[in-house]
Structure prediction request, 79 residues.
Amino acid sequence: MIKTLDDLKVQKFYCTQPKTPRALEAVKIAGLLPLNAKFEVCEDVQTAVKKAQAIANGEIILVTGSLYTVAEALPLFNN
Prediction:
């Protein structure tokens, strides 16, 4: 999945984890990224989404991961 996202020329990755005990730690996700990837580790999904929204300038924000991650992110989008 990460290779596919890198092929899409992602501007920046925000690595985070949902509020579930089985979630992979955000820092471990960051460790799977390509060496040249721009990324930031965020403490929670809300912080990651807010940071992505701050730089998106109308561009697409893609939330990937588990359904738990998407469920936490969904209410943070107005449209």
